[in-house]
Amino acid sequence: MSRPPEPILGLPTEPTQARRFGKTRTAQSSAIAEDYAELIADLLASVGEARPTDIARRLGVSHATAIKTVARLKREGLATSRPYRGVFLTEAGEALAARVKARHRLVVDLLRAVGVPAEAAEQDAEGIEHHVSDVTLAAFEAYLQR
Amino acid sequence: MSRPPEPILGLPTEPTQARRFGKTRTAQSSAIAEDYAELIADLLASVGEARPTDIARRLGVSHATAIKTVARLKREGLATSRPYRGVFLTEAGEALAARVKARHRLVVDLLRAVGVPAEAAEQDAEGIEHHVSDVTLAAFEAYLQR
DNA sequence: CCTGAAATGTAGTCGCAGCTACACTTTCTG
DNA sequence: CAGAAAGTGTAGCTGCGACTACATTTCAGG
Asked: In CATH, what number does B98-144 get?
């Protein structure tokens, strides 16, 4: 966000196969927000409420970490919660969760389609999904409907 | 690494479609190490030396950040460097770079094969590659040789 | 061979995701 | 309905990646 343009040019006269890294770094925090939104939506749908402890368990972190991250989501307008009552999603949060869920499915389906075992597909999709651009997502969709 | 087992069980009596997140989080730091190793190898191969400033430019970060991260790589036995001389890779570092490079190619090829435009494929692969397990990688390879 | 620009290194700050430890509600149960 | 167990929240610490600002070293031209 705060990192300005800075062309990122390759070495001047050298024919380096410049690959643009760049994003990836700041992407991490939004990846976590996505995971939380998705999980909270899941919990709300399946259990009717999303408690910090459940979130923590499912993500494999301490409950304190879960609570702090939920606080960040609240700050960012994605979630709401009141002390000792569960966590809920704002409209923005729900929208995010829906997008993430759809993307997740698509990524898993694509992986399966190219022969990745179910177990690995589910597992890897968790990490991969956060880095799939809209263009790539569209290509996945087209491929699956070939 | 320091996070112990902690079974990560789903809710006891609830039929939640438990998806294992878990790793992902600590994975981030090794993803960065991978990027650096790969880039340093690239620079060494194409320009003959890897200077902090070049690394920083290519990654889109400040030179201070690059230097600090290189320090971490040194701590982890992946790189070496002496003040004002460039950065080099240890054997472990080279091995890592080679693995990463190969994996990157495979991911890009797979993406292209399912119809992702070249530009997007290169770009997304950068983020995706760090989350592709060996099993998935093997599946990609098999698919490409269909 | 000397000097100034460019590169390199160092210090100190911030935000965030983790953790443990402790304090405080809620809720369950005897 | 009181006490214990479970859940929730707060405080304080760490590591890491990112930054800016400042200090130092190299090295190329004059």
From this structure: 1.10.60.10
